[in-house]
Specification:
By secondary structure, this protein is α+β, with helices and mostly antiparallel strands. It is about 25% helix and about 40% strand.
Length: about 160
């Protein structure tokens, strides 16, 4: 029987510009990676049940881009996009992340480094989010991102586990 890790992501602030998210999953890393990088699977977890995903585009190659858009509760649109900088399948993914709701979004983009490590069939996921400024980091933290991220991570675990 699967041991869920519901609501157990940890968020820390290692530096003035960084957010570090860590969470353990009851699934092997190749399934967590697949759920993170396959559009039809991302659609099942990314919105954290807070709206409807209307765009999920992933061009998974160095220099390729991604874009996610959802219509959130209340009818407002939330969009993010970025570019893949480094890809090590099942282990590491480095990409930019720009929130489309702010002016000059690309100039304020964060650099996200996803790292997956596996021990005994369980995966430790780590996402280091590096903002260009402390103000950008603080705005991200104050956006309420943690509650949605916790729910999205719970759904990500469900999706990854379902691929067994």
């Amino acid at each position: 029987m699967a041991m869920t890790s519901s609501g157990t992501a940890t968020v820390t602030l290692p530096t003035d510009e960084q957010i570090l998210i860590t969470r353990e999953f009851d699934a092997p890393k190749h399934l967590v990676y697949k759920a993170w990088t396959t559009p039809e699977l991302v659609r099942r977890w990314w919105t954290a049940k807070r709206g409807e995903m209307t765009v999920c585009e992933i061009d998974l190659r160095v220099g390729g881009t991604w874009r996610y858009v959802m219509v959130a509760e209340g009818g407002f649109e939330v969009g993010f996009h970025g570019e893949y900088r480094e890809i090590v399948p099942n282990e590491r993914l480095v990409s930019t992340e720009a929130y489309e709701g702010i002016p000059d979004a690309d100039a304020h983009a964060a650099l996200n480094t996803l790292t997956l490590t596996e021990v005994d069939g369980r995966t430790m996921l780590s996402v280091l989010v590096e903002h260009p400024t402390k103000e950008g980091r603080d705005a991200h933290v104050e956006s309420g991102m943690e509650a949605g991220m916790q729910d999205a991570m719970d759904l990500l675990e469900e999706v990854a586990s379902s691929l067994r």
